[in-house]
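Input.
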Amino acid sequence: MENKIVSVVLPCLNEEEGIRICLEKIKDVFQKENINGEIIVVDNGSTDKSAQIAKGAGAKVIFQPVHGYGAAYIKGLDEAKGEYIVIADADDTYDFYQIPQFIKLLSEGYGLVMGNRFKGNMTKGAMTFSHKYIGNPIITFVFRIFFHTKISDVLCGIRAFTKEAYRKMDLKCLGMEFGTEMIFASLQQNLKITEIPANYFPRKGQTKLKSFQDAWRYFRFMLLFSPDWLFIVPGLSLFILGFAALIFSGTNNFNLFGHRFNIHSMVFFTFFPLLGFQILTLGLFAKTYSQIEGFSKKNKFLQTFYEKFNLEKGLLTGSGILFLGFFIGLYILSKWITKGFGPLNEIKLALLSLIFMTLGIQTIFASFFISLLGIKKQSHLTIKDF
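Output.
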């Protein structure tokens, strides 16, 4: 084992039943493997004897008054001196005798080594049925789709990373989503990531997990950091399908389940392409902001878009769409005049006129807003002539 300092950081909130045995195992590993290590316990407002037990066992105890899983970890990680860092819960659910396996992979060049409880020895009762077969698989599946990773247990609490990797991650989340933010940040920084089987045992003490609340925090994080899935995919789907349904319903030949859809359905379908376009523009704003602020990698499509599409082109495009709708309106007006301002039945064309004029106006103002976003840090995006 390399003679580099290894820091083991444990967040702690009322863990007096498990903290002592965790520390004993870690110290035993340090001794047997001749590891130059330190143990940092971050007390996050315990009302039991957790902090006293940790101090008595020789751990460095740090107090973090700001509540939260991420807040505790960030406080402890900032204090860690080790070039290699291992994190895990203080409830004796993880096998600290696996620490050398994590350190070995870090020494081989990996920036982040994740544990995988589903490939390790999961003791009966260690994970509830809902977490094992519903919560964890769904969250992991969504994370893999959104962020294009092969990690198969994104919520595993035992993991290891280098100090250099931690600095690159620049983690901010204070709650339970801290763990998923770490993986996301590692992917954004192109860190070398791998997984190993992690043994998992029933916790000692009362659980701090709030299943539905914590699950929402995970999903909220994934959606906010994936504008493609939050905005682009639903927006584009609404726009294309809504516009298609609008056109088909206006042809008098749109039949579904034996019913013919006509003018009333066309009025209804008008809503969807307008909403879809609005969501699409919000997606473009979000992707632009995300790249400017460094939340996401450089996007080739976005870069090409800005290289070829400036404010003036946006205004011309929006004006063209606007005038198309305006000319349709003029055509309707001319027909009305030729009929001597009598009865008129051009509702379908009027709807198209309304849609095109609305889309044109949205395009014009969206172009101005995107140009404002590009003013702040043009070094992040090549925004031509903005």
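The chain is about 55% helix and 10% strand.
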